[in-house]
Amino acid sequence: MHTKTLPDLVRGLRSREFSSLELTQSFLNRIRQHRHLNAYITVTEEDALLNAKAADVRLAEGKAELLTGIPIAHKDIFCTLDVKTTCGSKMLDNFTAPYNATVVEKFNQAGAVMLGKLNMDEFAMGSSNETSYYGAVKNPWNTQAVPGGSSGGSAAAVAARLAACATGTDTGGSIRQPAALCGITGLKPTYGRVSRYGMIAYASSLDQGGPMAHSAEDAAILLQTMAGFDEKDSTSVNCPVPDYSAGLNKSIAGLKIGLPKEFFSDGLNSHIAATLEAAINEYRKLGAEIKEISMPNLKLAIPAYYVIAPAECSANLSRFDGVRFGYRCENPADLTDLYTRTRGEGFGKEVKRRILMGTYALSAGYYEAYYIKAQKIRRLISDDFKNALSEVDVIMGPVTPATAFGIGEKMGDPIEMYLSDIYTIAINLAGVPALSIPAGFIAEMPVGLQIIGNYFAEDMLLNIAHQYQQVTDWHQQTPKGFE
Amino acid sequence: MEWETVIGLEIHAQLATKSKIFSGASTAYGSEPNTQACAIDLGLPGVLPVLNEEAVHKAVLFGMAIEAEITPYSVFARKNYFYPDLPKGYQISQMELPIVGEGHLEIEVDGNSKQIGITRAHLEEDAGKSLHEDFHGLTGIDLNRAGTPLLEIVSEPDMRSAREAVAYMKTLHELVRYLDICDGNMQEGSFRCDANVSVRPKGQKAFGTRAEIKNINSFKFVEKAINHEIERQIELIENGGKVVQETRLYDSVKDETRSMRSKEEANDYRYFPDPDLLPVFISEDYKALVKTQLPELPQAKKHRFKDQYALDEENAAILTCSCQLADYFEAVLKDSGCEAKLCANWITGELSAALNKAGLEISGSPVDHKRLAGLLARISDNTISGKIAKQVFEEMWKSAATADEIIAAKGLKQITDTSAIEAVIDKIIAGNPGQVEQYRSGKDKVFAFFVGQVMKEMQGKANPGEVNKMLKAKLSQ
Amino acid sequence: MSLTADDVNKIAHLARLGIDKRDVESYAKDLSGMLDLMTRMSDLNTDNVEPMAHPMGQAQRLRADVITEQNNREKFMAIAPQVEAGLYLVPKVIE
C-alpha cells in the first residue's frame, strides 16, 4: 500500500480495496519500524487512528473530500492545535499551539489523516537537518548521509514511505534541496500562493510552504489543497487556484527552456552536469527548445540572502522570550537575565549565529551597507528572473552542487554549508515558484533537477515535471530496505 | 542671561476603533487582564498581522484636518527592543514613510494666534501594561492594550513656553475629538504626551540639548512638568553644568522630573520594513472621499458662530470646544427659535454649571436640547422670567417633564395682568411710608427694595418689566 | 571585515542572547566569514536601484474594523511559564 501514488490511494480508499484505518496503521507500523531515521519528532498515533476511523465512516457514506483517509505528516513548523509544535527547537519543546496553521486546517478540511510532526532544522535554519534539537535525520538512501534541510524529516519520511506525502517549507531551498537529496518531488510555490498563517516564521518575505511527494502528480493534489487566499495573511495573494491535476497531461512540445550559463559554469560538479544534461535531453525529445540564457546577478544571491534572512529572523525570533509560552530559564535573577538565559539556553548555535548576523546587519551604522544593499541586489536578481522568463517559459538548473554529504561533514564550517544553497536561494529572493524532481543517481545517491517558472506558473511546472515522469522512472525508485 | 525655551510635543492618540490595529480583538478599556489579548496581540508563534482599515481612515482624516500631505505609499516598520509589555520583541510602527506628512495647527494664546508645525503623524500599535503591584517580587503583565491603534503626532519644536505647549495640546485634543478619531480620555491613557524640552540663550539660533519628558497625562501636568524642566535646565547650565540628552519621567506627586534610562543603554531600535505587511497605498480617490467626510473644524466653527450668531469670543470659544456642545447649541437654537445670545448664555451658564457639578459631558446631559429649547421659548415669550426659568430648569434636571408641564403644575406662569400687579403695588406703597419718603427725597436705591417686595408678594411670577414700569409711575405720583 | 569578541558581546546583548564565553571567539570567526561573503555585494554598483522588500509590488490589504476574537485567556495562559491572577509574571520591571 505504501508504494502507491496518491491517485491510487484515493481510488483504493473509495473502492474499499483497503480502509483508511489499514492504510494509517501500515504507515504507523513503518514509522515504528524505521524509527532510527529520526524523521518524526511527534507521532500522533491515537489521533491518527481515530481520524482514520472517522474517514472510513465518511468514505462509506460517500461524503469523501479530496484527501479523505490519506495519511500525511506535517513539518513541525506548522502549528497544530493541541499537538506539540517544536520547530525543531528546545525553545518550543513544551509548546502546544492553541490553533492550527491555515495549511493544517486545509488538510484537515480535505480529510487527510495526520500521522505526526516531522523533524527539521531548528527554526528552519540549516541545509542538513543537523541543527534540530531532536537530532539529525538520516537519509534513507544512505543512513550515513544527511537528508538535506531544513525540511529533512519531510523528505526522508516521503522517500522512506513513512507517510504518503508531506508538507515542507522553503526559505532558501528547504523544500527543493532535501527533495533532491532524498529523491522525491518538492515544490516551492510562488510567494503568497500558500498561506503563512500558523507557519512559524524564519524569514517572512522568503518563507513559503509547499508539497513534498513522490511525483508531480501527487504534488499537484497536495498543492490543490494548500494553495489559496487567506485573509489572515497580509502577504497571501488573492488570485484563482487552477486545477493543477487537470493540466498535467498537456503536451510540452514547443516549450522554451532556458539554461542560465551561471548555473552551468565550470563550478558545477561534472557528474551533476552529466545527469542534468541527460534530463534536459529527455525534454528535447519531448519537443522542448533549449536556450542558453544569462542571469548575471545570481552570484550575489548568497550574500544578499544571508543579510535579508538573518535580519528578518533576528526580529521574528524576538518573541521567544520566556514570558508567554515556550522555554523559560530557571530562576531568572532579573529581566535581562530572563531574556538572555532563556534565549541563550533555548536556541541552538546556528539559530544564534543568524540572530547575531541579522542584529548586526540592522544595527545603527550598518543598515545601509548591508540591509539596503541586499534589498537592492534582491531587486536586480528579481529583474534577472523577469527578463529571463520573458525570453523562455521555464528555467532549468541544478538543485544542489553535489549529492547528499555525510552527517557531521560540514557542521564545523557554516559558510561551506551556506554555499550549498547556491542554486536555490535566488528563487526565494525573486519569489518565483520552483520545483525539484528526481533526475538520476550518482553513486546510488539521488540527484535533483530544478525547474523554475514565472509567478503563479505552478500548473506549468507540475505539467512539465509530470511529462518527464511519464518517460522516466527516477521518481519511482525506492531506497533499499524501504520497499 | 535671558533664556528662551524650545518645546516640541509627541502626542500619542489612541484611535477609537472597535478592534485592534492588526487583530480582531476588542479595544474596549477596563476589561479583566489579558481577556482581550488574542494570539496575534500575544505574539504567539506563526501568527500574522492584518491592518485595520478604520485605523488608516482615521489617520487620513487627521492628516486632512491639519492640511498635511498624505503619503501615497506608506510603510510599516519594526522597532526592535525587549520589554515585557511588548510581546513580539518589536513594535510595529512607521519610520521612513509615515502615513501623514507635514502639516500644521493653529493655536491661540492670550488672544494671539500662532501656527505650530506638525512634522508627521504615524500609525503604530500600543504596548501592554506592566502592573507593579507586588506579586512576590514579580511584575504582572496585562496585554489587553497591546495592539490598540495609536496615531503618534510629532510637532516641530515651535513652542516657546509651557503655555503654548498646553494650548497646542488642547487644540489637538479638541481636534481629534471633533474628528471622532480618539475619545480623548486622558485618565484612561487615550491621549498621552511626551515633551521635548530645551533652553537656549535668547537670540541663539542653534537648539540646546533636549530632554524628553515622558508620562504626562493631563493638561495641568504638562504645564507643570515643562516649567519644572525649564527651571532645572536653566539652573543646571547657570551652575556650569550641561544638559544631557535623556528621557525623564514626570512625577506628579513630587512635581519633579527624574532621569529614566541610564545613558550607556543607548537605544538601537534596528528599524526595518515589516516583512509581514505590505506598503499601504492611498489613492487620490480615497483622499477625495475622506475630504468629503471632514466635519467643520473647531476654528472654522468658532468664526462662523461669531459671524452668523453674533456671539462674543468667549461664548463662541466655549460652545465650539466640543463638537457635541456646538451641535447641542445649534439644535436648541433651531428648536426654540430664540435669540442666539439667550441660548448661548443658558448653555454656557446654567447648563454647563449643572453638568460640571454632576461631572457629566454634554452627551450625558439629563436635559436634552428639545427640553432646553422648550424652556427658553417660554422665557422668550414672557411666560416666565429668567429667575423662574432657573427654578424650572432645576426641576427639569431632576425629572423628565417638559418646561410647560412644570410651569403648569407649579403655577409658575408669569402674571401680566396689570390690575393684579397694581393692587399689590398699592399695598406695598401703603405699608412702607418711610421708604416711600426716602425714595421721593432722592434715594434711588430704595427702588430695588420696592421691586423685591412686590416680587416676593407675587411669588416671583410678576413680569419684572411691568412691575418696574408701574412702580416708577406710582412712586412719582 | 572582521568582528572582535567585543563586537559579538555587544550584538548578543542587543539581541538579549546569552552566549557561552567559550563560544564568543568562534561566533566572531563565523560572523567575520559571513561578512566577507557579503563584501562581494559592494562590487556591484546599485546607486539607482530601488530596494526590494517583497517579491511582489502589492498593496497592503485592509481588514474591516470588526471584533472577531473572543476571550481565550484560559487557553493561552495554560501554555505560559508563570501566570497569576490572569497576568503573565516576569522579574520585577524597574523604570
- Which shape of chain C, going by the Cα principal axes? flat
Q: Main sheet of chain C, how many strands, which sense, barrel?
A: 2 strands, antiparallel
What's the overall geometry of chain A? globular
CATH architecture of chain A: Alpha-Beta Complex
Structure overview:
- The complex is a heterotrimer of chains A (483), B (477) and C (95).
- Chain A has helices at 6-14, 20-33, 45-61, 102-109, 152-159, 176-182, 216-226, 270-285, 301-316, 335-346, 349-362, 367-391, 414-419, 425-430, 458-471, and strands at 40-43, 71-75, 113-118, 165-170, 185-188, 208-213, 256-260, 289-293, 394-398, 434-442, 445-452.
- With 483 residues, chain A is an alpha/beta fold.
- In chain A, helix 7 runs antiparallel to helix 15 (458-471), helix 9 (301-316) packs across helix 11 and helix 9 (301-316) crosses helix 12.
- Chain B has three domains: 3-287, no CATH class; 296-410, no CATH class; 418-475, Orthogonal Bundle (Arc Repressor Mutant, subunit A), CATH 1.10.10.
- In chain B, strands 6-7-10-1-11-12-13-14 form an eight-stranded mixed sheet. In chain B, strands 5-4-15 form a three-stranded antiparallel sheet, with no helix packed on it.
- With 477 residues, chain B is of the alpha+beta class.
- Chain C is of the alpha+beta class and 95 residues long.
- Chain C has a domain at 5-43.
- Chain C is built from three helices and three strands; from the N terminus they run ααβαββ.
- The chains are: A alpha/beta (483), B alpha+beta (477), C alpha+beta (95).
- Chains in contact: A-B, A-C, B-C.
- Strand 2 of chain B pairs parallel with strand 1 of chain C, so a sheet runs across the interface.
